[in-house]
Specification:
Layout (H helix, E strand, L loop, with lengths): L44 E6 L7 H9 L2 E6 L10 E4 L5 H10 L3 H9 L4 E4 L1 H4 L4 E2 L12 E5 L10 E6 L1 E2 L15 E6 L1 E5 L5 E7 L2 E9 L2 E4 L7 H16 L9 H4 L1
Parallel strand pairs: 1-2, 1-3, 3-4, 4-13, 5-6
Antiparallel strand pairs: 6-10, 7-9, 8-11, 11-12, 12-13
Amino acid sequence: MRRDRSGLRRDVRSVLRSDTNVRSVSSPLSGDPYKLEKIGNMKVVRLAVIDYDAGNLHSACKGLEHAGAEVHLIDHPVGLENFDAVVLPGDGAFDPAMQQLQERGFVEPIREVVRRQQPFLGICIGLQVLFEDSEEGRAAGLGIVPGHVKRFQPEPGLRIPHMGWNQLHLTQPNSPLWAGIPENTWVYFVHSYHVVPEDPSWVAATVQHGTQIVVAAIARGSLWATQFHPEKSGSYGLKMLQNFVTFVAQRDPLTGLTSVQRA
């Protein structure tokens, strides 16, 4: 059984198990870790978390596990369709991320995940690679979301990268991603580039850095992605991960509708 440096199992057949509570970063709004509510008789949700050497995946996996999911860390694309949902987290630069996805054979399987409306969550670089290309490099992105990745424009006194806590403006306040999440929630960012979708209806939340208002999250159907790190965003970040797990659990794989949408 291979393990990464964090000790997480990397065999696709393995399930992450731990008696250790997830450590929650205190946000400016709350000094206490969020206590996730139990979700009745919700079915066990099996998540495939893609390992492509794009930063530390440990905190994302632990946050999703704490949200009630059965988490499988995988480094090959075989059998993605057998999971309830797919998660693409990660830090780092655009070109190396795309290179790793290409070399490991994930590019077309990820496109297939989205085409068949299998729930998908991207985090940080996992958001940016969904787009066509980036000013950060020369590689083509996955091209799932029409649009591009742009660098922040320099301003006097503006720090780039945008690093630290900042507040969300929810442009899709009724999205399941934001269930229980108030306007102006503080979340944690680390990025020098931001996505610009051609169709603004993709935008689920924005954030202001200096005078620039940029995309903080996108959502459409079963595809969600955030520029910030929910797993590092304290109580409300963990709630967002739980919202994703709950959405997946309530979804009918045949119709793509949740139990609320079917009612």
